[in-house]
Prior knowledge:
2 helices
Amino acid sequence: MKEFFKIAVCVILVVALAPFAGFWIVALVGAGLILLPLGAVLAKTRPETWKHIQDSLFSRTSSLSAP
């Protein structure tokens, strides 16, 4: 009976939290669909700005690393 109760609680939690997970999945996909073309336009029209962004994002040293 305890196992049945654990399974029932798990099912209820999954069903209750599924809309929140679905919202975030859709939000992230939507943000990607907007940011990808914007990044492509920025890279094409302003290559020096894009190079600066790449250097800032992908540099080996960051402000978060320990000195």
